[in-house]
Amino acid sequence: MADFNTLDGVNVAGKRVLLRADLNVPMKDGVVGDTTRIDRTVPGLIELADAGAKLVVITHFGRPKGARVPEMSLKPVADALAKQLGRPVKFADDCIGDAAASVVNSLKEGEIALLENLRYHAEEEKNDPAFVIELAKLGDIYVNDAFSCAHRAHASTEGLARALPAYAGRLMQAELEALGNALEAPKHPVMAIVGGAKISTKLDLLGNLVAKVDQLVIGGGMANTFLAAKGVNVGKSLCEHDLLDTAREIFKKAEAANCEIVLPVDGLVAKEFAANAPHDVCDINDVAADGMILDAGPATIEDLNKRLETCETLVWNGPLGAFEISPFDTATVSVAQHAAELTKAGKLLSVAGGGDTVAALRHADSDQAFSYVSTAGGAFLEWLEGKTLPGVAALRAS
Questions:
Q1: pTM of the model
Q2: Cβ–Cβ contacts within 10 Å for residue 397, how many?
Q3: Which of 126, 198, 236, 387 is catalytic?
Q4: Catalytic residue from among 37, 54, 212, 307
Q5: Do the beta carbons of residue 13 and residue 52 sit within 8 Å?
Q6: Which of 88, 109, 275, 309 gets the highest tally of CB atoms within 10 A of its CB?
Q7: d(Cα 40, Cα 57) in Å, to the nearest integer?
Q8: Are 225 and 199 in contact (CB under 8 A)?
Q9: Cα 40 from Cα 257, distance rounded (Å)
């Protein structure tokens, strides 16, 4: 079903492969704190190196805004990458010019180099044609393995794909195929769970999903705005009262698209936002004037888990409650674990993404069991919103 160029059948032996990765990893005192992005990139790098490529990895790090900020050098990342690869990684202290060319030209088949921070050059984010040309001099073919950066039309994500024969890397391919299976050609019924604090940040997302899914579950603080739009008194709960008409419009769009919007029927209600705050389980219509809904209740959890058992596909973005503090993580954990069980049993295709979502699924110890969990953040959200991602569009098969 892929309509983008993949590496299948591409002979990379002896060729300089310019690979855009996302190695923008957490760093403190020159030490990489979380190697998740490196770990996900490593299998694709090993495949190319073992096929005889002269592999040149390029990436950004932080926001140096065109200046050489020492704390944003990729040298520590090169060391961490070499450790995870189990093989040497050469390092160039620039991504263009003589310093880069010298390292690239020294590569033998199967060897790997990492070039210095792309964003040391302001031309990267401007997608400057002259900068693209300088980067393109370093490669024979271009591979984009950074879906998380594909929503930006930068020199290394969009420009290079126009300048060299371009292909999706294995990580990019896996992400695109997972998202395609979840939303472009899914098995129905499809459920989407969208949570988080505010609907104002997810209007495009909600508008796109109601046209594509059979059930749209709304949780977290967002649910309170939809409940209030239906006339429910949500007390002192987080609620965007200025967007009640917007919520009503989404109800209308969902009805026209034959999409059922699913809201909590009960909740855990407290008078303060704090861990282990005294709380009650309340019917959603019985929330006290001074109460705050901080999580979905047991009846809602039971309802959602039963609904999941009738679904073929699940797309998840955002927690169902204040999952960072106990016991208001109960709904997120319970539903995530049930979705994970159904996935492991082969009964559900489950795709999730977004910063809070990844953290919530890890908290529930469920992230490894989902079919695919995207760490792409902004790119994942823009994909769910139905937007064209420049870095993906440039890889489209002609």
A1: 0.89
A2: 10
A3: 198
A4: 37
A5: yes
A6: 109
A7: 14
A8: yes
A9: 37
Rg over alpha carbons for the chain, rounded to the nearest Å, is 23
pLDDT above 50: residue 72: yes
Cβ proximity of 147 and 180 under 8 Å: no
Question: Amino acid identity of 54?
Answer: K
Q: How far is CA 10 from CA 137, 165, 263, 391, 395, in A?
A: 20, 11, 49, 20, 15
Say if residue 188's pLDDT is above 90: yes
Mean pLDDT over 136-154 rounds to 96
Q: How far apart are CA 320 and CA 33, in angstroms?
A: 28
Q: Which residue has the higher pLDDT, 252 or 199?
A: 252
Give residue 226's identity as a one-letter amino acid code.
F
Concerning whether 180 is annotated as a catalytic residue, the answer is no
Residue 377 pLDDT > 90: no
Active-site residue, selected from the candidate residues 235, 355, 377, 386: 355
1 pLDDT more than 50: no
- Which 3 state secondary structure label does DSSP give 58? strand
Q: State CA 180 to chain mean position distance.
A: 14
How far apart are the C-alpha atoms of 375 and 362, rounded to whole Å?
A: 12
* SS3 readout for 312-324: CEEEEECCCCCCC
pLDDT of residue 398 exceeding 60, the answer is: no
User: Is-catalytic flag, 198?
Assistant: yes
Instruction: Kindly state the helix (H) or strand (E) to which residue 383 belongs, with its residue range.
Output: helix 378-384
Separation CA 368–CA 301 (nearest Å):
21
Average pLDDT of the chain to the nearest whole number: 95
Q: Would you tell me the crossing angle of helices 170-179 and 36-50 to the nearest 10 degrees?
A: 120
Q: Three-state SS across 225-290? A: HHHHHCCCCCCCCCCCHHHHHHHHHHHHHHHHCCCEEECCCEEEEECCCCCCCCEEEEECCCCCCC
Joined together, the tokens standing for residue 108 give 């033998």
β-strand pairing of 31-32 with 27-28: antiparallel
CA distances from 231 to 166, 215, 247, 248 (A): 53, 21, 12, 11
Residue 57 bridge partners (DSSP): 19, 114
Known active-site residue 170: no
Q: Of 101, 164, 156, 100, which Cα lies nearest the Cα of 123?
A: 156
Q: What's the one-letter identity of residue 26? A: P
Position 30 scores a pLDDT of: 86
Give the orientation angle of helix 355-363 with respect to helix 330-344, to 10 degrees: 80
Give the DSSP letter of residue 107.
P
Give catalytic status of residue 66 as yes or no: no
